[in-house]
Design a protein that fits this description.
The structure is a single chain. This protein has 408 residues and is an all-alpha fold. 71% of the residues lie in helices and 0% in strands. Helix 17 runs antiparallel to helix 18. It is globular, with a radius of gyration of 24 Å. It starts with a helix and ends with a helix.
Length: 408
């Protein structure tokens, strides 16, 4: 990796680790201080590495600089005596100054504990997800705004209020008790799910697929699986779902970066290792008598990794979607169900099902209608493809859909 790309890459992978360890050390009430120190560490790296060159071990360099900056911050008299210590002791009366532990084990533990701290029920769900994306994943404010389909000002206000709430509630950086685990884990999984979808259905810029975000979601889920107290069926089901989806990454984008729809994908590009991993985690998810939306979505994703375009396959997929809509209805799931419905009952019946949804602001709604009307009413198919193209979020996606309209 060249020098220009190294610091953005390290910011994505190391910022969250530094913030998590510092939050555990200072207390969650000082999350803003932890973020400032982490950000300042990367600013120092940008200035220093540009003059002196990249150090032999860039990650160790960042950790050492962050540790020094944290110690300096702690020893500034005004902060140390009048602001930091009283608040830290309020959270942890037994606290005393100690060395900052940036060992691999403590980094992993700190990130896992931070997942649950920022997904505390004292915060509204959107604030939990926003903080997680910011602190655990190193998202920029603009990326979070795009994930929530809102603007930067709204996200900044939401994160500020969330941090104030964490400060007031004296929330500790620790794993929840066994009695709280299920509720708290649900919020964590929702955040990971949103993160993966932000990458899989990239909604801005020139990226049709952002693998880095998807891999980050898989990384966070892996941390949950590797801890005995959080290795639950729903966690494995979500991991299975992500592995099945990730197995089709290479087939989903062509050489020009344009989106390739499922029916047009080259199945020889599907990653069989990830399909096997998806199957393994789906098996792990069935260990207890629990059925979550993640289980059903993973089972649907499994059938999409089967090349055979059989009646059995699409009947299974349709049945799974029917159960999913009963358990956790969403417009996106209803729209996806319509594709399976067309495979079972034909395009004319599926058109009626699709038009009932009336998702007029969704590009995938018009894209599906374009496919369904193709060879039935080509003029309508072209109109729907053009409408989908006008709603596309990326240049590559817009070009890919417009080609379909032009080909009619």
């Amino acid at each position: 990796m060249n020098k220009d790309g190294l610091i953005p890459h390290l910011f994505r992978t190391e910022y969250r680790k530094i913030v998590s360890v510092l939050c555990k050390y200072f207390g969650l009430s000082q999350v803003a201080l932890a973020e400032d120190i982490a950000s300042d560490t990367f600013l120092t790296a940008t200035q220093s590495w540009g003059v002196e060159g990249v150090p032999a071990n860039p990650v160790a360099w960042l950790y050492q600089v962050a540790k020094n900056k944290a110690k300096n911050a702690m020893h500034r008299k005004e902060i140390f005596e009048n602001k930091v210590v009283p608040q830290i002791k309020n959270v942890n009366p037994e606290w005393q100054e100690a060395d900052i532990d940036l060992s691999p084990r403590n980094i992993i533990d700190s990130q896992l504990q931070m997942m649950f701290a920022v997904c505390h029920p004292a915060l509204p769900p959107e604030a939990q997800i926003g903080l997680s994306l910011r602190i655990l994943s190193g998202f920029g404010i603009e990326e979070i705004a795009r994930a929530f389909l809102t603007n930067k000002e709204t996200v900044n206000k939401r994160l500020y209020r969330a941090k104030e709430k964490l400060r007031e509630a004296h929330i500790a950086v620790e794993l929840p008790s066994a009695g709280e685990m299920e509720e708290r884990l649900s919020a964590v999984l929702k955040t990971i799910y949103l993160l993966f979808n932000e990458g899989y259905y990239a909604a801005g810029g020139d990226h049709t697929l952002r693998k880095d975000l998807c891999l980050e979601a898989i990384r966070l889920c892996t941390m949950l699986i590797e801890n005995n107290s959080t290795n639950k069926p729903a966690v494995n089901a979500l991991m299975s779902l992500m592995c099945f989806h990730a197995s089709r990454f290479d087939a989903r984008i062509d050489k020009d970066g344009e989106l390739v729809l499922y029916a047009d994908q080259d199945a020889s590009l599907w990653n069989t290792d990830l399909i096997s991993k998806g199957g393994y985690f789906l098996q792990c998810a069935s260990g207890e008598n629990e059925l979550s939306a993640y289980h059903l979505e993973a089972a649907i994703a499994y059938w999409h990794t089967q090349q055979d375009d059989s009646e059995e396959k699409w009947n299974k997929v349709l049945q799974l979607y029917n159960r999913l809509l009963q358990l956790a209805y969403s417009p996106v799931a209803a729209l996806n169900r319509t594709y399976a419905f067309s495979k079972v009952y034909g395009k004319p019946a599926a058109i009626q099902e699709a038009e009932k949804l009336n998702l007029t602001g969704d590009r995938f709604y018009y894209l599906l209608l374009g496919e369904l009307y193709l060879h039935i009413d080509n003029e309508k198919a072209k109109q729907h493809f053009q409408r989908a193209s006008s709603l596309a979020k990326t240049t590559a996606e817009k070009q890919s859909i417009q080609k379909k309209a032009d080909a009619i």
